[in-house]
Design a protein that fits this description.
Layout lengths: L9 E2 L24 E7 L4 H9 L4 E8 L1 H4 L7 E5 L5 H8 L4 E4 L9 H22 L3 E7 L12 E2 L9 H20 L2 E7 L9 H6 L3 H13 L5 E6 L8 E2 L18 H5 L9 H4 L15
Parallel strand pairs: 2-3, 2-5, 3-4, 5-6, 6-8, 7-10, 8-9
Antiparallel strand pairs: 1-4
Helix pairs in contact: 3-4, 4-5
This protein binds 1,4-dihydronicotinamide adenine dinucleotide and D-galactaro-1,5-lactone (15L).
The site of 1,4-dihydronicotinamide adenine dinucleotide (NAI) has 25 residues, from helix 1, helix 4 and strand 6.
Length: 301
């Protein structure tokens, strides 16, 4: 949230004194769990942000949560700092990231949209994340990439992260750019990132496609823990999925993360397969990216 002068308004914390005493939920966590001093969560008001916000409390003394002001509100738990910030605003992003040790970057446009929207939130957004991370000495980023980086592979193909990227739209292209930013910032400045190509992370699979790509919230949380605390990840790319037998993705090059999914989409199979089968040439049946491969173009009318 910004005041009339455009300054950042920060809930529950005086930015001049970031050594806020930490009490409450975060302080009552497992003593063996490694923790960051201050962890930033962007996209905190979104679907996954709301899920992870309470769960990430275990991973940091102070959790700084951020999103667009209208979506975020101003309520902060005692271990939290609430900072409204537009990812497209370079100066605001610099202030947001100052003092953070690590970043979970979920914020941005999360579906296929006209390029101009993607440019502001996703492309400028991830650029600002890494620019500020470099300036402020952040050493670990977890980037919410997407399966749409490889959406134009067919559902009868099995791929791994060394296969050529085949983005299925501007959204997938922006996530591909984010992965390139991550690699560049590791090669040049040593900032480590795990890019998670998230499949379908919602309470349950919705259709046949998400039987292959489902990532349960509990598995997402465990994957986040692995991504934040595994040493020496360089830039690792991992598909974010539960233990789904019908998967299209091979995570062999992310084995060092030690992630073991505990949930599986199989328990939903009977219910999902009772749905009518789409026509054989329907993109939702042909491509891993499903309907994203056929969304747009967004020509001006
Ligand atoms: P979401 O759309 O619910 O949340 C995204 C959040 O980003 C929203 O709260 C929105 O207000 C915020 N945001 C958008 N533009 C912004 C801007 N300019 N400045 C600041 N904040 C902005 O998405 P969801 O489902 O929570 O996904 C989180 C991340 O994971 C996204 O980056 C998405 O692309 C990625 N992802 C999610 C998948 C899923 O199954 N939920 C699958 C693949 C990737
Ligand atoms: C994504 O990247 C989106 O963020 C999510 O909302 C779903 O649409 C998912 O991909 C999907 O592949 O269906």
């Amino acid at each position: 949230m910004q005041d009339a002068a455009g300054d950042l308004l920060i809930g529950n914390v005086d930015m001049a004194d970031q050594a806020t005493e930490v009490t409450g939920a975060a302080a009552a966590q497992d003593k063996n769990q490694p923790r960051f001093g201050r962890l930033l969560l962007t996209g905190a008001a979104g679907g996954l942000g709301k899920v992870l916000r309470p769960r990430l409390a275990a991973f940091a003394d102070v959790l700084r949560v951020s999103d667009l002001g209208a979506a975020l509100g101003n309520e902060a738990a005692s271990h939290e700092e609430v900072v409204a910030c537009n990812l497209a605003d370079r100066d605001a992003m610099d202030k947001l990231i100052a003092g953070c040790d690590a970043i979970v970057h979920l914020g941005g446009v999360s579906v296929e949209r006209p390029f101009e929207e993607i440019l502001e939130a996703n492309i400028k957004g991830v650029f600002h994340v890494y620019e500020a991370a470099r300036r402020h000495g952040v050493k670990r980023v977890v980037f919410a990439s997407s399966n749409h980086v490889t959406g134009f592979y067919r559902q009868d193909e099995r791929i791994d992260v060394r296969d050529l990227r085949r983005p299925d739209g501007y959204y997938g292209l922006s996530k591909s750019y984010g992965e390139d930013m991550a690699q560049f910032n590791y090669d040049r400045y040593g900032i480590e990132t795990v890019s998670i190509r998230i499949g379908w992370s919602f309470p349950e699979p919705r259709d046949r496609r998400s039987l292959a790509s489902w990532l349960s919230y509990d598995d997402l949380t465990e994957l986040m823990r692995c991504c934040l605390f595994t040493p020496d990840v360089g830039h690792t790319v991992v598909y974010g999925m539960s233990d789904n037998p019908s998967t299209w993705w091979d995570n062999r090059y992310a084995a060092h993360l030690g992630f073991k999914a505990r949930d599986t989409s199989e328990i939903f199979r009977t219910r999902i397969e009772a749905q009518p089968l789409p026509p054989a040439d329907d993109p939702v049946r042909v491509y891993q990216g499903g309907i994203f491969t056929a969304t747009g173009p967004f020509d001006p009318v």
